[in-house]
Amino acid sequence: MVSLKDKDILHGNQFSKKEIDAILRVASEFEKELKQKSSISLLKGKILATLFFEPSTRTRLSFETAMQRLGGGVISLGSVEGSSVAKGETLIDTVRTISQYADVIVIRHPRIGSAKEAAEASSVPVINAGDGAGQHPTQALLDLYTIRKEVGTPKGLAISLVGDMKYGRTVHALVELLSHYQVRLFLVSPDSLKMPEEITSNLKAKGLEVVETEDLMGAASQSDLIYMTRIQKERFSDLSEYEKVKGRFIINRDFLTQLKKKIIILHPLPRVDEIHPEVDTYPGAAYFRQVRNGIFVRMALLAMILGKR
Amino acid sequence: MVSLKDKDILHGNQFSKKEIDAILRVASEFEKELKQKSSISLLKGKILATLFFEPSTRTRLSFETAMQRLGGGVISLGSVEGSSVAKGETLIDTVRTISQYADVIVIRHPRIGSAKEAAEASSVPVINAGDGAGQHPTQALLDLYTIRKEVGTPKGLAISLVGDMKYGRTVHALVELLSHYQVRLFLVSPDSLKMPEEITSNLKAKGLEVVETEDLMGAASQSDLIYMTRIQKERFSDLSEYEKVKGRFIINRDFLTQLKKKIIILHPLPRVDEIHPEVDTYPGAAYFRQVRNGIFVRMALLAMILGKR
Amino acid sequence: MVSLKDKDILHGNQFSKKEIDAILRVASEFEKELKQKSSISLLKGKILATLFFEPSTRTRLSFETAMQRLGGGVISLGSVEGSSVAKGETLIDTVRTISQYADVIVIRHPRIGSAKEAAEASSVPVINAGDGAGQHPTQALLDLYTIRKEVGTPKGLAISLVGDMKYGRTVHALVELLSHYQVRLFLVSPDSLKMPEEITSNLKAKGLEVVETEDLMGAASQSDLIYMTRIQKERFSDLSEYEKVKGRFIINRDFLTQLKKKIIILHPLPRVDEIHPEVDTYPGAAYFRQVRNGIFVRMALLAMILGKR
Q: C83 and chain B: CB distance < 8 Å anywhere?
């Protein structure tokens, strides 16, 4: 039997296919339960701590919502300026302290590997909500949940991942999950933002068909699903590099007309200009449904980690 | 029968007299209930999101208190710096996202009309907690609730509204509610901060007696109630204009001696120097009772919007 | 019978020995209860407001955790920039407002005496969570709770308090509590950061043996317990004074070997470099257990103040 009790959630590659199936099944159960019941008290008395060392709205509020929808409480570090970090405290000391208060910790931090470091310091389970250009496994799980709801099984799908393959942690985590399925992947990015070779070679070793390209139209027109991402200014140390690539890949209504009729568009959000707002009313534009799915998937993770599912 | 289920609260002019009566009656019931019961679970399982794009203590905490006093949970955007907005997300995308999480949204934003825009983007009800120099309808409702508690019906009262009639959103909203009653209004402001003509002509069209004046003493000495407001520095693009008018209208103990004996003093707070602290112990100084009333009125609105009253 | 119902918690010297015993007994009961029960609903329907006018992680989150572990709700002022204070509101007005919302207020403020001022303005009980270089009584209570758990009674112990005796509010509060016991105190600090004479003379008047010294090794080698503190940069108006004294007293593994075998090390945290991380695995390094004890002690205070114990 699958159990995530007391486990950290750090990396897309940590999950077996069975575990992924179990998480998404529980997420689906919670989705139904929320429609039927006015409240759920499964995690009553439990406390989630959110430690966001980087700006975030979506992910922090998604976790805080998920925890409260299960009847649990939340404590939140708030801005770094108002915290012990400003007094010179190390990440390890902060995490050790917070783990004396909370039952589970969600952390976002600008440095790759920081979530793992936090997990080692913590006496309670730690969930990685983004560590720099590293990983973002809960986003990947909700992406997969959305793909399943929108299309059915990912098996056999042609999927374009578009934007920043180099620093984009959501795509780094997502391809780990997709590697369990026979998908065809188009990795569409400027040459300077290609997927790290270590990741692509690993995907190929697992038997996936992977095409790296700068030609969005060529890839998209063959795809069943497009996963757009924002090219994140904050990931660049050299801003002139950013200026060169921003606004390179854009989807609008015109573009859509040249694609498969039932194509699904996803985006982890926030978007800037990669997807024109005129696309929002297209039936396959699933990115706000994707946001909502995040609640169910995070409810599943919290409940399972705390041993209640 | 009056129902606010699933309705947005955007503007003082949206309420019929019947609706106002219903809201204030429910507020009064909650005020009593809070005294009798140790807790209320009416909104258990529901979540309120507070999106404050402008500094606020009072209003945000008032809503968060109201929601929790009803057993509900709260998620809060936090400072704009730490949010998706800093990543270039539009207000519409932020609201569409948050409406996937919460059951009701409270928004404050520096731009007139932003709350309406948010309501159109949102899939859940939106409450306007101040949109620039526009409206602040929940403040107006708690002001009216306070007037009723302190004086009885507003009918026939002479009321001085003092300070910034031009940018003051609380007075803009309050006069809409008072327009349902036969009150006499003195609008006391510097000439540069007069009430927009569109609002005063509308009040007169509804049969109210409206006097615009710069003479505070003249107006106050004829009034049963004075509603002071702070002249808000943050509303001025030209600070020299602000310097000219600040500190123009001030109430102190001396001033009070020249007014009707039972005069009631209100203020939406925070105050700077418009009301001297020596006034606080005067029995008719009702502004901190007014703060408290905000809880009951917002409990009423939340419960009614969520279909529980 | 001891009762703290409706009382403010402002100063270490306000407690009788009986009251201290009662608080720590209740804390101990809650510690056990948390292990046995999945949730406690003692303060359901009650609201705690946290007003932190100075950076803090530990203390704010500790109180917010304590309140939620008892089933209560929390409202939080957030950063000062986003508050009415930025609009020019006085502390007194802010507190009077918040006391209309919450059932109990926790305040931290950079000015000595501010908590007392807040308590006078508030209509609900106020807990001082640090007022500048003044007091921090709840920290002192959790320190004492930790001493008791680690060593048993403080009676007869030799205790070194190390670091900033002048501005260090946690030691100011702690010595007040220790003055109820026959302890020997070594106050180890640079000459420029000595304990205020008023406090030491008071301790001596109560019959305690007090030694002031700059010799950490001399004091520590005679001690059963060392209470380290960070020399807080933010307390100095003259930074060159800070540069002179920082890094003066440091504990590492080497140092430990020269002390009593069962010596206990405490620290209110956050630390910077006063205690080397290599000390953390030493069995007597109790500072993270101390963090945890803060929850139980604050649960006790909240429950007692709100009349539920």
A: yes
Of C78, C79, C96, the CB nearest to B288: C96
Least confident of A30-39, A52-61, B46-55, C189-198: A52-61
B75 with A57: Cβ contact below 8 A:
no
Contact of C35 with chain A, judged by CB distance below 8 Å, is answered with no
Taking only residues 225 to 284 of chain C, the set having a beta carbon closer than 8 angstroms to any beta carbon of chain B reads none
Task: Please judge whether A57 and B101 are an interchain contact, meaning their C-beta atoms are less than 8 angstroms apart.
Answer: no
Distance from CA of B120 to the nearest CA of A (A): 14
Two domains, one topology: C12-135+295-305 and C137-291: yes
pLDDT > 70? residue C84: no
Are the beta carbons of B290 and B146 closer than 8 angstroms?
yes
* Residue for token pair 């200026």: A243
Judging contacts by C-beta atoms under 8 Å, the chain A residues touching residue C57 are 77, 82-85, 89, 94, 97-98
Residue B133's DSSP bridge partners are none
CATH architecture of structural domain A12-136+294-305 = 3-Layer(aba) Sandwich (3.40)
What does the domain layout of chain A look like in residue ranges?
A: 12-136+294-305, 137-291
Sequential pLDDT tens for chain A (309 residues): 799 999 999 999 999 999 999 999 999 999 999 999 999 999 999 999 999 998 788 899 999 999 999 999 999 997 665 556 667 789 999 999 999 999 999 999 999 999 999 999 999 999 999 999 999 999 999 999 999 999 999 999 999 999 999 999 999 999 999 999 999 999 999 999 999 999 999 999 999 999 999 999 999 999 999 999 998 887 788 888 888 888 889 999 999 999 999 999 999 999 989 999 999 999 999 999 999 999 999 999 999 999 999
Quick one: pLDDT at residue B80?
A: 65
B95 near B122, Cβ under 8 Å?
A: yes
**Four-way CATH pick for A137-291: 2.60.120.1440, 3.40.50.2300, 3.40.50.1370, 3.50.50.60:** 3.40.50.1370
Q: Does the ipTM exceed 0.90? A: yes
Q: Which residues of B fall within a CB distance of 8 Å from A52?
A: 82
- Does any CB of chain C come closer than 8 Å to the CB of residue B68? yes
Q: Note the pLDDT tens digit of each residue in C221-262.
A: 999 999 999 988 877 888 888 888 888 899 999 999 999 999
- Residue C128 has a CB neighbour count (10 Å cut-off) of 29
Q: What tokens were used for C301? A: 């205070």
B97 close to A (CB below 8 A):
yes
In this prediction, what percent of chain C has a pLDDT beyond 70? 97
Contacts of B92 in chain A (CB under 8 A): 277
Residue C298 near chain A (CB below 8 Å): no
Name the amino acid, one letter, at B187: L
Residue B55 has what pLDDT? Answer: 77
**Which CATH number is associated with domain B12-135+293-305?**
3.40.50.1370
**CB-based contact C84:B56 (threshold 8 Å):** yes
Q: Do C77 and B57 touch (CB under 8 A)?
A: yes
Instruction: Give the percent of chain B with pLDDT over 70.
Output: 97
Nearest chain C residue to A51 by CA distance is: C57
Rounded to a whole number, what is the distance in Å from the CA of B117 to chain A's nearest CA? 15
